[in-house]
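User: tokens in, sequence out, please.
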């Protein structure tokens, strides 16, 4: 599945209230379950029909379900960590004495990327199209800088996004008398960047072509994507308006300057004060325009440093750890919601299929948290089937094990995975 921000999605909802403190708000349909485990458990246990003993049984079941899936997540994390070790820029241990041949390393790279994307899919990340990346880099920004993509230095550059939100950024405009005001922007709630540099390209001492660089960020506006890519990915160009602003004082003032020079005697032109007074106005105007462009570049650098310091959630191996944790959170949430919905329907004697489950799960989250989600019903049912908690087969209506039997199945899973 590919995630795309269409160019027309710069248009914001008409009823959007911009938070002056810059807090984000969800917008649109989320492709993941934006609920913590503790909040989800409290939501699922808030059924007024449950007695204290029944609520305790469900709490123990959700705890066991989370523990089993977390143990499975640890196995996936261990595999990814081992596959990533030859490509980890931060790896400080001794390398193997006989390095793998080029073909074997290429195969290992393909295996790692495939397993890494499986972990991303488990966390409900979606790959961002390459055309969308280029469009985001070229899009207009608050600093009026012009960015040109420079992706020839990369052997691989992939971006993955999850969730939609609105973030606010301060901006000064002439229309508001240069007063600071908050502007809202569409953003990815989480963004993962994977980069591998091309062999034979000179990139400086901080980069290596035989390594894979991973980053995970939060709350990345579509128009600020270039600030979260390596500096080799973009070139900052002076906009045409700024070029005209720099050149126009000289071009416009040149005829006036020539006429003044011709009207003055030769002895006056030899005076440095006279010559300096003639050149001051056009040179000062051009320098002021150039300084504005340079200050915009400094603001860009400052904002990039701010984003990297406050919005980075993980680098390289830590990025893998964070993604595996997010995958566990999503798989646990989807399985818990699906089991509870199917169990309640079975207890009432209702027939429930995948479409009904999908609708009820989305309505459940919306009614409690006022957030619209695209519930991954197929993945949730497959998780229950993989854990042995689903009784139905094929096209039959969905049916799960009774709570006591399901708890016993989870205990057996835990016993097999425990040392």
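Assistant: Sequence out:
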């Amino acid at each position: 599945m590919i995630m795309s921000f269409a160019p027309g999605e710069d248009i914001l909802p008409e009823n959007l209230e911009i938070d002056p403190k810059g807090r984000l708000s969800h917008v649109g349909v989320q492709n993941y379950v934006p609920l913590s485990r503790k909040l989800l458990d409290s939501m699922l246990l808030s059924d007024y029909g449950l007695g204290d003993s029944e609520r305790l049984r469900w709490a123990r079941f959700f705890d066991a379900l989370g523990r089993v899936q977390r143990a499975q997540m640890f196995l996936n994390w261990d595999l990814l960590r081992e596959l990533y070790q030859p490509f980890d820029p931060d790896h400080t241990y001794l390398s193997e004495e006989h390095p793998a041949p080029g073909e074997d390393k290429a195969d290992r790279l393909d295996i790692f990327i495939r397993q890494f994307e499986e972990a991303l899919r488990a966390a409900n990340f979606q790959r961002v199209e390459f055309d969308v990346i280029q469009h985001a880099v070229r899009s207009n920004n608050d600093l009026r800088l012009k960015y040109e993509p420079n992706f020839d230095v990369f052997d691989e550059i992939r971006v993955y996004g999850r969730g939609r939100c609105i973030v606010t950024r301060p901006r000064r405009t002439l229309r508001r008398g240069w007063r600071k005001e908050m502007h809202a922007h569409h953003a990815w709630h989480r963004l993962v960047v994977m980069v591998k540099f091309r062999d034979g390209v000179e990139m400086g001492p901080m980069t290596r072509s035989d390594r894979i660089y991973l980053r995970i960020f939060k709350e990345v506006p579509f128009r600020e994507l270039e600030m979260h890519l390596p500096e080799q990915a973009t070139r900052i160009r002076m906009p045409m308006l700024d070029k005209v602003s720099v050149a126009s004082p000289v071009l416009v003032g040149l005829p006036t300057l020539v006429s003044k020079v011709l009207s003055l005697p030769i002895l006056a032109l030899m005076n440095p004060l006279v010559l300096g007074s003639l050149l001051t106005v056009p040179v000062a105007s051009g320098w002021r325009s150039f300084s504005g462009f340079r200050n915009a570049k400094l603001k860009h650098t400052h904002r990039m440093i701010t984003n990297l310091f406050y919005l980075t959630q993980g680098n390289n191996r830590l990025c893998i750890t964070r993604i595996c944790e997010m995958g566990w959170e999503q798989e646990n949430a989807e399985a818990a919601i699906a089991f509870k919905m199917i169990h309640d329907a079975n207890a009432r004697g209702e027939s429930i299929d995948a479409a009904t489950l999908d609708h009820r799960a989305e309505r459940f989250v919306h009614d409690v948290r006022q957030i619209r989600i695209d519930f991954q019903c197929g993945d949730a049912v497959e998780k229950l089937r993989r854990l042995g908690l689903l009784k139905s087969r094929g096209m039959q209506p969905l049916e799960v094990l009774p709570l006591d039997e399901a708890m016993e199945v989870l205990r057996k899973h835990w016993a097999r995975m425990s040392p």
